């Protein structure tokens, strides 16, 4: 017997080509099909796993050093993962040991690149080096002086303020694992802040989000980030005072 598919479902199915969102998945009675139900549960499991994933410090360190980049290992004030999830404030500040480690860096630099696990170390392990391989050559070719790369465990976005300030950098660039979604457990976010210092809030930052093979490509993300960094240095500001007009300039 030929199944009659409602016209509204047929029209929505064409959109599946453009998005991984769960649209036009059909139904069985008052529920969704078994295949779609199992796929949802699997995606939910991937998202939970990403939240508890760990930064691959050893591998990232080795690969960064192979690229000729100096590396610092830093830690927030969080002691364990459950505390990280329950106390976001502790993830925004460096531990005392890490603060002491930065005391020896007095030479002014332009950009401090900071790699933070965030809510998905999986995203960082998969995507951070691919993005930096495109971005760093653009930054060095433009004459920007880079501080050592910071690898940070149990950190939140605002920890970049402590680190950028401690490294005497004019701008901090944080690569961090974003909160996992049910279609993207490996999404990398990048936040930049001009004039980083303790106590800043989110209106001082610009964000480029959803960087991953299934989202914003490394090449497009690096282009957008480089534009924002260049504009931040021109205007000596970031956040709400810095708009992304790159698309307007190209049109």
Structure report:
The protein is of the alpha/beta class. The chain has helices spanning 7-13, 34-51, 57-66, 81-86, 88-91, 96-101, 121-141, 159-166, 218-235, 246-250, and strands at residues 71-75, 109-116, 149-153, 169-177, 188-194, 205-211. A six-stranded mixed β-sheet has the order 1-3-2-4-5-6, with helices on both faces. Helix 7 links the parallel strand 2 and strand 3. Helix 7 crosses helix 9. The N and C termini lie far apart (53 Å).
In short:
By secondary structure, the protein is of the alpha/beta class. The protein is built from 10 helices and 6 strands, in the order αααβαααβαβαβββαα. Helix 7 links the parallel strand 2 and strand 3.
Order of helices and strands: HHHEHHHEHEHEEEHH
Q: State the secondary-structure class.
A: alpha/beta
Number of helices in the DSSP assignment: 10
- What spatial order of strands do you see in the largest sheet? 1-3-2-4-5-6
What's the β-strand tally?
Answer: 6
The largest β sheet comes out as: 6 strands, mixed
Q: pLDDT average, as an integer?
A: 88
Strand content: 15-25%
Low-pLDDT residue spans: none
Instruction: Report the radius of gyration as a whole number of Å.
Output: 21 Å
Please report the distance between the alpha carbons of the first and last residues. 53 Å
Give the oligomeric state: single chain
**Shape field:** globular
Helix-residue proportion: 40-55%
Descriptive labels:
globular; single chain; 16% strand; alpha/beta; 251 residues; 10 helices; six-stranded mixed sheet
Topology:
Elements: H1 7-13, H2 34-51, H3 57-66, E1 71-75, H4 81-86, H5 88-91, H6 96-101, E2 109-116, H7 121-141, E3 149-153, H8 159-166, E4 169-177, E5 188-194, E6 205-211, H9 218-235, H10 246-250
């Amino acid at each position: 017997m030929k199944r009659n598919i409602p016209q509204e479902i047929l029209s929505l199915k064409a959109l599946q080509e453009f998005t991984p969102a769960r649209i036009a998945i059909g139904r069985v009675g008052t529920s969704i099909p078994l295949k779609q139900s199992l796929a949802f549960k699997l995606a939910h499991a991937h998202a939970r796993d990403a939240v508890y994933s760990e930064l691959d410090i050893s591998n990232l360190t080795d690969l960064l050093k192979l690229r000729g980049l100096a590396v610092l290992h830093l830690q927030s004030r969080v002691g364990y993962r459950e505390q990280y999830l329950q106390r976001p404030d502790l993830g925004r500040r460096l531990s005392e040991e890490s603060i002491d480690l930065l005391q020896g860096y007095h030479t002014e630099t332009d950009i401090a690149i900071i790699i933070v696990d965030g809510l998905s170390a999986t995203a960082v392990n998969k995507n951070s080096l691919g993005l930096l391989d495109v971005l760093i050559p653009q930054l060095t070719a433009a004459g920007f002086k880079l501080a050592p790369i910071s690898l940070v465990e149990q950190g939140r976005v605002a920890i970049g303020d402590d680190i950028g300030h401690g490294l005497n950098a004019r701008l901090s660039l944080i690569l961090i694992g974003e909160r996992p979604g049910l279609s993207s457990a490996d999404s990398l976010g990048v936040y930049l802040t001009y004039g980083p210092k303790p106590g800043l809030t989110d209106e001082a930052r610009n964000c480029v989000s959803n960087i991953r093979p299934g989202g914003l490509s490394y090449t497009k993300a690096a282009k957008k980030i480089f534009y924002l960094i260049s504009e931040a240095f021109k205007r000596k500001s970031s956040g709400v005072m810095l708009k992304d007009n790159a698309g307007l300039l190209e049109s």
